[in-house]
Specification:
This protein has a 15-stranded antiparallel β-sheet with strand order 18-19-20-21-22-23-24-25-26-27-29-30-33-34-35. By secondary structure, it is of the alpha+beta class. The protein has three domains: 315 residues, Peptidase S8/S53 domain (Rossmann fold, 3-Layer(aba) Sandwich); 87 residues, no CATH class; 334 residues, Maltoporin, Chain A.
Amino acid sequence: MASAQGTNPAPRPVRPQGIVTPSWGSVSPFWGSVSPFWGSVSPFWGSVSPFWGSVSPFWGSVSPFWGSVSPFWGSVSPFWGSVSPFWGSVSPFGGAAPADGIIPQWGNINAFWGDVNTRWGSVSPFWGSISPFADPSAYQPVADQLKEMMQHSADFWGATVQQKTGKSFQDGFAQPLLVKYGIDLNDPSTLAKLDVGQRNQFFVDWYDGLMNLSGTDRVDHWMGAVHWNPALSQVQGAGSGTVIGLLDFTVKDPDLTQSISKYTGVSDFSNGHGAAVASLMISAQDGKGVMGIAPRATVVAYNPFDATGTANWADITNGVKMLVQNRASIVNMSLGVPGYTLHPDWNGVFTDASLAGKIAKTVFVIAAGNEGASQTGKILWNPANPYFLVVGSVDPSGTISSFSNRPGDACLVSSATATCAAGNALRDRFIVAPGELILVSDDKGGTMRMSGTSLAAPLVSATIALLHDRWPWLATNPKATTNIILRSARDLGAPGVDDVYGVGLLDVTASQSPIDMNALRLYQMVNGKLTQQPLSSVQGATQETLTKWEADGAFFYAYEDIDGTFRDFSIPLSTRLVGGATLSPTGRQEKFQQYLYSRFIDWVGKTGTSGGAAGFASFTSMSAPVGNPYGVNMTMSMAPRTLMQGYRQSGMPYQTALQIADQDNRFAITAGDGDGAITLGQHAGFGLASDYDSDTGGANPLLGLASGGAYAAARYALSDRVQMSFGVTERSLRRDTRGMSVGDQLMLGGIPDNRSSAEHVAISYRMSPAITVNAGYTRLRENTALLGTQSVDRADLAGGSTTDGATIGMNVAVTSDLNIAASGTVGRTQANGRQNIAVGNGGLLTSSYEVALTKNKLFDARDRIRFTFSQPMYLEQGKIDYTTVQVIDRQTGELGNVTQSFDISGKNRQFIGEMLYGRSLGINREVSLFGRARLKQGVTTDALPAYIAGARFRMGF
């Protein structure tokens, strides 16, 4: 390597030239002042603190480490299913198998951190509430609570620490961390020395230190934010054959250097910054910590900094030249000049004569800088300069980081007198990505957390590497490449391109997907034959069409034209193709882009979970194919369990379903635990538990009265138009008397469990592509109830009841976005055996019906609205015979049974109108509106309100 003097004769620093320095000096490579653990923009306090208030990751409902919106467990836990292909037969828990006792089971880790979350949630506020002037003994309770938390950690992780370090938990993990922060739990006064930032930093180190022992790659919050998981990279090739240029400090982490094919530069100076950046791009999925988006990409690196940690524009120009000469189609550059989002001297680099003809086919990704500045005015720029992207940072909530520079109203112009042409504003080239508290390599084989736009830029660079791997010809077309990234971003801030967020947030999955489904040229491959398909024949496909695609093992081969070139997509329409491959026009074996399946099905207008699918109709549900060696199609689904008001919640808080179908998908079996009425009902228009509730819905309330426990269903396609289904469902409910008075508990505690079961058989017939009719028969058996009603006297309904019901329905797909469904049920109920309360001759005749109208894309592609009108279960006619023991002979006092008959029909017919509206608001945000009107006839004693309205706003971190 040339010496610093020989390579860089210009004096350092040369301020008129625009100095670029590392973590000190006036020109930062976006590191120093954004130190994750100290400095003016430390993420542990101040305006970017994510540890308390509305964005606290360590307690409350928005904790990103656990809880309902946790990106480490809850919403991104499916990542672990995606990660497994990278290990193959090697257990992700360490050793030959999870049961070897070395590493705690992954599911138990979730429970462990949930418990520690509660402990820390009580320790931290109390710790912070103690006055700095208080007596040291005031910290004794904090020390005691910390000891308990550490003992709990030792019980769970002790064997792992012993295996990994050869030391006890105290010596191998806890004590070194306590010493680092100057904490002596036997001297409570040492706790007074830690400010709020250091306290939270201590807990992060506790969390990360233990998770580094878990033997698994780490799921970080940025992954869900940019819609990335390891399976997506695997399908796209993980960056194979792509060369990324890294203009940064020297990388010394041995896990990363093996992917760096060539390195040179002014010196070997390093402060860990280069390794942090590289780890987000190329870290392997090997169970060692950080996961990179493009782990199979090759990196060529150049260090423009000398031993003093400074550089000038000449060094940077030499670095760019070296990187492009070594075939880098992407160059990541996390350096610049403070106060500038894009310094004008970049123009001098790109127009340097030594680079002429060498950089036209390269995309340059530049970090925006960390001074919180908005650039204004004109930037002199040569129109022939290469394509570039400037990347800013957002916090876990999707809000621009306080330290991130912004595009402002700056514009690229060819002369000082030129006006800003359309598309030349800096905001048109500006995109944001997560950049706060990101888990990265510490350049020593471990991990650390850092913040800065330097950590946002490599996420963009690695996403481009996936594009260049899947579609190699894009590596020579930087215009198409940058436009794909910009056009697939999710809008943030003010609608459209704005001066703060530019085009919006990086969306990795969207960038690898068609930008506009309506603009695709489609070709369908069926049984090996390729035919072009008009869009009109695809959009609005019926359930039967989807079934046929599944049976035929079909997939669509689609082309997207973009900026003089194209992209091709292999979209599987059958679970038989999961994990398979097809030969692309380029002659490569390309994996089917399974991540496009749900998006494509949504586009053709079928997003429901009807037709016997194993899925659940829930905002928070998830379904995934299950690999198996048996040659069948298996799908596993789970969703939050529907709560039964007034009854104890038993078992897991989630309902599950497993569907097994034959290769032709003509026959399928579904088994699960939860809302069985939805699956047994087999009705395309009614996919909510409330549709089958006897108090609120009219689709088939007989099934609803036996829904909530185990169920099983089967369906068989007799022909392309006719399908039969049958199934059983059951539930057992125990009344919740907690919080009641002693008298109420004694009275209600004697009521037996409400146990019921139902069998259901149905047939559906497709009259036309848009119209399907169905009919079904249901038998409901209730052990100790009559249509859901029980008595405090066990003898009243000791024999239970049986109800036989008939259901007819219709579903009409008016358009691809508008669907109308109707269903009605008539039932007749008889009492079983001898009991105090019996049903009169002829039984009880009940009726119910419901009509639902669903409209997708009401205002745009991100919302949906549903209107329903129903008559819940209504008693049309029938009498109740009530038998009691009375004196039947007043003269002798003889006792006997006396039966009284009561006509209970026609008392409280009700109609219910309901509206549901849901809308996505961008990154991990959604709003839902709900309204219900209950219209009553006659007199009713129920306490349900006549009108209900509500709204829900959900934000994930």
